[in-house]
Amino acid sequence: MSIEAFNSKFQRLQIKGEETLVSATVPHHLLHPGLPNIPEFFASVEVSGLEVGYCDTTKKKVEPKTNWAKTFLDHHQEQLDWYTAECVERFPVNMKYWMYNVMEIYNQTGGVHVIQRLDHCELDSETGEISAFSKFGYDGEDLLELDLKTLHWTALTPKALAVKPRWDSDEHRTRWISLYITKKG
């Protein structure tokens, strides 16, 4: 096929700097293969909307993203060691266990699935009160949220009602998350 024939049959489409050829004469779809080299587990820490730290199971280390976070970790080796152990050893194991737990309840035996966890902690400087939550998502949908006062889970979708009893009965999980977020428990 000549270049002229090729160009008349296909249109060029540019998405995020990558050029894709799209046929103008036949039905088509766009398939994005995802991001290359995504680690099995990664965590990002934000303070007031600014990413201050990152770690993943590929690099096996904590990376401070701001000067003040780097300075803090440079002067607190024990804290850096703790964050590294959490990110490289404990979090990946726990998240994988929790994902397989949900897969079992949903009768899923394979495939690609994603479990997400969002923790939030806020200290009221006037009262000393801590407000916090831990929320889980599964395959892009809200799943459960931990009530840190009662240490019980709230189902965020009707489908999550099947998961709630098992997670409520796992006191180790709820206490560990509560302690992690609030440093009490």
From TrEMBL:
Gene Ontology CC, one term: extracellular space
Cross-referenced InterPro entries: MHC_class-I_related, MHC_I-like_Ag-recog, MHC_I-like_Ag-recog_sf, MHC_I/II-like_Ag-recog
GO BP: immune response
Domain MHC class I-like antigen recognition-like as annotated: residue spans: 59-176
Record's keyword annotation contains Glycoprotein: yes
Protein keywords: Glycoprotein
Pfam families: MHC_I
Protein name: MHC class I-like antigen recognition-like domain-containing protein
Organism this protein belongs to: Takifugu flavidus
Phylogenetic lineage: Eukaryota, Metazoa, Chordata, Craniata, Vertebrata
